[in-house]
Sequence to fold (555 residues):
Amino acid sequence: MSILHLRQIEAKLKSLFINLIDLDDYKGKSQAEKDSAFLTRALAAFSILFIADVSPDIAASTVTDGFQDNGIDAIYFDSREKILFLVQTKWRHDGKGSIEQGDSLKFINGVNALINAEFERFNDKIKSRGTEITDALSLANTRIVLLLAYTGQATLSNEVKRDFDDFLKDMNDPSEVVDLRVFNQGNLHGIVARGTLGAPINFDVILKDWGQVREPYSAYYGLVSATEVANWWNNHYPQLLIPNIRSFLGETEINQSIIETLLSEPERFWYFNNGITALCGRIRKKPLGGNSHETGLFECLDVSIVNGAQTVGAIANANVKSPAQVAKAAVTIRFISLESCPEDFGIRVTRTTNTQNRIDSRDFVSLDTENQERIRTELQLEGIEYVYKAGYSVRDYRTGFDFSEAIVAVACAHSELAYAVQAKYKVSLLYEDVSKAPYKALFNSSLSSIRLWKLVQIYRAIEDYLKVERGNRQGREAMLRIHGNRFIARQVFRSLLLSNLDDPTKGVQDILCLVPEKTTTAINATAKVINEKYPDSYLANLFKNLTKCNTPDSF
Fold:
């Protein structure tokens, strides 16, 4: 069936991209060479079309295949989801094999060059998108998806897997920012067979402790096995989430917490999770289980998950790491039948279930009235506004600041390097528990209100100077000033004399005048060590890695 499937994939690519793929660099070449180039590039475009859910013309415009592409055949940045897709494709005319090690290493080296903004190594297609790519990589929450698509039937060889595993291990230390996805012939044909956006998703589901709502519209709810949810993801992603306002955002701070719960306390997962909402074209209970509400088998037709994408994605991620632990977990789910609903009801459910407020760690800071309210009151008497409660905003930042600025400033000014690194990695972990360190090490009775306000002013001056510096730099030099901002701020604080900050009669202007010089020194020292010790490290992760930031005699 391999050749038949290959022909069907080829036919789909031609129907989508026949007049959209740029082949200007193949003028004067044979028709066979043009056809081969078209298929390779169309496959890259098709991969973007499918995984990013974009139109054929947009997908075709992402193709970068050609001389000096360094193994990267397509690039697309999803600005809404903050995902940078990097694609390598191989059209294998015989339908056999997979990606060869030489090609995979070329791709890995190309990705390394790209994330280090070494655009001089690339062709004009990639160079022309240098600003777009640099801007994407400069965002702290950008994730990178490496996508391999090939028309061979084989899986990746052990050698190729090992190369990617090593690369991902290095890139994802300490947090997972790079993901690898592989589409072989079977996956590609499955996508084509279902249609680009997929045929309606139908499956049976077992619900425990289930219940039913009959009026005004039919719905069923209950507990579903986390393993079953992981299977939905494996079989139907991303079509399963297409109506969702947000697709899975990867291992964000919240999603990492979900994964950790699944792996460490799977039996308690239900208690900690809000659950999943799914829409169905129709849902029917099957006879199995009779009238008992303990367990029921349900037929669900045309299913889409409209709320809980992060839960579903986190369950799938955790299942890869430990299927045995995930099998112990269950999650609440409700299936809403649209069979007798008004036409716009599904859209309204999607919108309203994704726009409700949630409590985050910042809300718990208000519980520390001893320190936060003391600081607010003292500063108010000095004509300075301090806002620590979520939901309130500073009226004038010239004479005010909020907790978000304060926590970063005191973390970077603290002698403990781990706090500055944490401020870059997951700042909310600094205040997730206001009863103990690190929060108590940063906010306690010894922190005077006037000192805090001065630290914020100094931190602002450092940030302002770094912004000016970024405007005068390109590529990796600019990214150093973005991703390294909190580490550099700590180095500047260490170089300043801060002993008089508690004195209300002493101003801060003399210190602010030193910031440009001290920041320049810190930038140069940091850049020197990085170039010597970590020339290929992804800067967005380097400055979140305490071990690397704490390298003896490094900075």
In short: The longest strand covers residues 203-213. The chain is about 50% helix and 15% strand. The mean pLDDT is 90. The two ends are 59 Å apart (CA to CA).
